[in-house]
Amino acid sequence: MTDLSVTEAAAGATVVRRHPRVRRRRGLNGRSIAVLVFLTMCALFFCVPLYVVLTTSLKTMEEIRQGQIFALPETWTLEAWSFAWNEACSGITCEGLKVGFWNSVRILVPSLILSISLAMVTGYALALWEVKWAGTFLFLLFLCAFVPLQIIMFPLIAITRTMGVYGTIMGVAVVHSVMAMPVLTLIFRNFYKDIPREIMNAAIMDSGSFWKIFAHIILPMSGNILIVVLILQITNVWNDYLVGVTFGGFNTQPMTVNLANMVTVSTGTATYNVDMAAALLTAIPPLVIYFLVGKFFVAGITAGAIKG
Amino acid sequence: MTIRWTRIAPQIALTPALAVTAVAFIGSILWTIYLSFTRSRRVPDYAIDWTEWTRQYDRLFQDAGWSTALWNLITLGLGSALAIVFGFVLAAMIDREKRGEAFFRTVFLYPLAVSLIVTGVAWRWILNPTMGLEATLHRWGWTGVDFNWLAQGDTAMYAIILASIWQSSGFYMALMIAGLKSINTEIWSAARLDGVSLWRLYIEIIIPMMKFTFLTCAILLSLGVIKAYDIVLAMTNGGPGQSTWVPAYFVINALSQKQNLGYASAAAVMMLGITLLVFLPLVLLTAWQNRRRAAA
């Protein structure tokens, strides 16, 4: 927690430095203090679950049974963490969360490559080339972006089964790519449509073909939007449960499914410290990304929400 | 030759996306709609009995589980709407105060980066009656408080709402801050010169100016609520009994537990109907916004 607040304070300092006007103008009056106190209390409310989960994961079960959820651990131990990672039972296998972690990674990589390359090329073609029915197609994508998975679930199961990828890592990755395609395409299209017409005309005059222009002009310009989409998609895929549990087979399920099984289907007495350690382990990858490149994360979710 | 090729290449590049849209979205939706009129159980059965082709829907509307799911959807929607209010309050304060803006934004938004399964697991632990928040509060002497929400059917939904608000307030705050930043700064100074109180400024000027942002938030919230599945699964798994079923949960349950494909399809089609109901204003809104942008 202290590390996080330090980075945040540093981030705050840079923001303040960038707007010296704002900083200079206002003194600390009564209203400011009241607002800051209120905001700090809200911040505490938002931090409480993280604090509770973290401290619980570092306690022993005897200590947890005393029922002091806000107390710091008397004896700090990482036992629950190593147990959750290596040995905890999820369903009938007892190999810990590391199985799910690596499954999630193996799902993530192909789904990122598939969905982003597909969305990029489609967005580029729709934004910068004259394509018949482009408006209709965009509208359809807009509609598709909001279709809940439940409505197309069975057909997708049937299709992936015919393709022979149902229950495999690849199957989960393909379904993720399909579900993400509309939103990502719209994001890329909105980014590319602001490229000046003159650049495109000059490129076409220069006998640039569709793919040449894409490789030499468009791709080098796409750095920022790629990072935004990458982060959006990494967090989406990593945090997904429904696609993983439906399309993943035995031993190919992602970390969230592994976690849910571990927590709900626990035989014997519940071990809350292990549960909390497992929850944190699942949350760490997206949280690290968020605290490192939060700006891009926010850009991604707002773009995905509004333009999607 | 080259000119013709540059005409064809973009069309070819669009083929995969078109195919995905046609098969995975449009085709699959039609497929599900068709299945909802059949008697399919574990495996699809494509014969439609025309004398009672609406039987799945008839059964659905008489199913107590489905009406619970619909009521819970409304409860969850209204309850989670507090996240928009909360998000606006936070955004207004952060935007006025400016001090610590980056810090507060980061803290309020981090829950969004976490999986809903993790959120559910964390909140279920906090609400644990014997070792969680309630035990601590009782130890502190507040023996009257009852946080055993998850064990009781009539309060379990509140626990889910609490977790949803915790998870999504930061998101609405981010949208609201963007909306507040787009408001002309002259309004603030003009209001100050006129001696308008801060309350009146917000209620009579700022909020009406931001009606578009509020509407966007409301629609996004509704679409999110319709999809809500993970948080229900992680917190209550639909229980106790059927008390926290929502339509998204109902469909999955019919598909994987009851193994009743036709029934699940009918419920899914109803979900699609609800989505479209919420979606229509969004389409109109976007069209309106585009026209306004074009006019500006």
Distance linking N and C termini of chain B: 42 Å
Helix content of chain A: over 70%
Please state the second-level CATH architecture of chain B.
Orthogonal Bundle
What kind of assembly state do the chains in view correspond to?
A: heterodimer
- What is the level-2 CATH architecture name of the domain at 99-255 and 283-306 in chain A? Orthogonal Bundle
Report the C-alpha radius of gyration of chain A, rounded: 24 Å
Report the strand count of chain B.
0
Number of H- or I-type helical stretches of chain A: 16
Number of strands of chain A: 0
Secondary structure class of chain A reads mainly alpha
Total of helices of chain B: 13
User: What is the CATH H-level superfamily of the domain at 99-255 and 283-306 in chain A?
Assistant: MetI-like
The proportion of residues in beta strands of chain B is under 5%
Helix content of chain B: over 70%
Under CATH, the topology of the domain at 99-255 and 283-306 in chain A can be stated as: MetI-like fold
Features:
heterodimer, A: mainly alpha, 16 helices, 76% helix, B: 296 residues, mainly alpha, MetI-like fold, MetI-like (chain A), MetI-like_sf (chain A)
Short description:
The complex is a heterodimer of chains A (308) and B (296). With 308 residues, chain A is mostly helical. Chain A has 16 helices and no strands.
